[in-house]
Fold this protein.
Amino acid sequence: MDSVVAASNAPSLDRLIHPLRGWPAALLWIALSGSAHAAEHDARTGWLPAEPVVKPLMAATSEAVNELSFSRFRRDGTEVTLGNGKLGLEFGFYGWQHEQSITQIGLMASTQSQFNMSTSSDVLVNTDYFLAIPLLWRGGPWEIRMRLLHQSSHLGDEFLLSGNAPERKNLSYEALDLLAAYHPAPGWRLYVTGGYIIASDLDEIGNVGGGGGVEYLSPNPVWGRAHWVTAFNTNATEAFESDMQVRLISGLRIASDTVAGNALTIAAQGFTGPIPFGQFFSDSATYYGFALFFERF
């Protein structure tokens, strides 16, 4: 009798299992909700966004690109082999979306150095340092970038002691820098740039500058995972007087098959105009060679 009573007072197996029947559906709903939220989240928004809404210009000087190039450099009838190494970082602090546009604020840092490869010790010629606080905006096919930009330039010690260096100038300035770009079709970017120097230790560089250019990245691969890429940039400032810098880059951009955004570009390049390496801005030169670009987004 006691066993029968105990059995009747014990919860039935069905009543024990029934509350648990909803758990699989609940867990599935939570998982799907999380996945949907992750899918809806834009990598360009929120704290420490993973991708900038305005990517650096490939062929311009004061940009956060990672580049290694070797060129035949010709100036005043003298020709040398020049190595150029450039390291850049574009780091976003925060990005927010308003209707169909996205705005970001962050930090940009870049350094570039030139080496005379025609000397036995590959003499360091010049190093430029760039630091900027960029405000980036993207809305549909339009892009705008505003920066408070600092640049300083320094000649290499061995180059200074060689007796071939120009008179050292204290090239250091702060400028307001503007980029406006438009994407008329997939793969294309047309842009104009402008700048105004607000503080400088060197009066002869003037205050006003600007330029423009075009970039093209083929939407579809032209060979394996390689896309065709071409960049053309022009730039002029008061310091250049009536002359203009012109640089053309063209080659193949090979995308990573495991990490989205990683890519290696192998390109030919050519340049003419006022020298884009800090201390030499008052002289003109031409160079041609090849360049490697290492992208991380």
